[in-house]
Amino acid sequence: MIEGISIYEILTLSTIVFFIGVxxxxxxxxxxxxxxxxxxxxxxxxxxxVVINTYLYPDFLQxxxxxxxxxxxxxxxxxxxxxxIINLYKLVNSVEVKDTDTLxx
Amino acid sequence: xxxxxxxxxxxxxxxxxxASVSSRKILxxxxxxLFVLIGISGIYFMIDYSFLGAIQLAVYGGxxxxxxxxxxxxxxxxxxxxxVTPLRKKLIAGAVVLTGLGISLxxxxxxxxxxxxxxxxxxxxxxxxxxLSVDAGGFILPFEVISVLLFAVMIGAIVIAKGKKLxx
Lengths: 105, 168
What we know:
The complex is a heterodimer.
Chain A: H1 7-27, H2 31-56, H3 62-92
Helix pairs in contact in A: 1-2, 2-3
Chain B: H1 2-22, H2 26-46, H3 50-75, H4 87-110, H5 124-132, H6 140-162
Helix pairs in contact in B: 1-2, 2-3
């Protein structure tokens, strides 16, 4: 835990980062920037796991281990999504959401 | 002292997160995201979990951001500006997000958390023993699943990104 900082302040920070990510997810219209918003959301949740573990249950390690799993999942998801985006760019020459209707009709 | 550092880090994280979701130049948005990730790793260092801070720097700062920059450079012109989102969409998203933020903050700030009060540094050896332990509470099965997942993603990313042009 951090000297002089309560759990409420860190949880407030992670909540704000989470909702900034949600806002980006709603408003962005480019696949790469949508993926960046998802990274913000995943980071906020990993921070929550670690903070709740160290402040409330310092004798256990579950939250700390799960944060590692979240980071591994996020890296895997990013690699796969960027592979899909590059393949899509080869197909339709664009990565805007409104142009990606290959499977629609 | 720690209070000041924490507040500076929090300010950096929030300002650059907002810049990252609102910047119209896509390469700049990626760099702002890098600052956010570095700030979060600074918070991991402050709560004495330096192993996760190092992982965050290596995986996000080193790997994910480089992937993003690569894909941006591959599919965009560097100076290209993103399209402006319609104001109506921005307002609706802002209203939804502010409502959610208000409800979540109210729930967090009124919940009586029972903080343990003891301080503990999370050592790398503890994490390693816990990850590879087969006893109750060990994480050997998720660890193996994650390694299989990473292998599958490696093959899948190669196969998908190689691709074929369908319109030829």
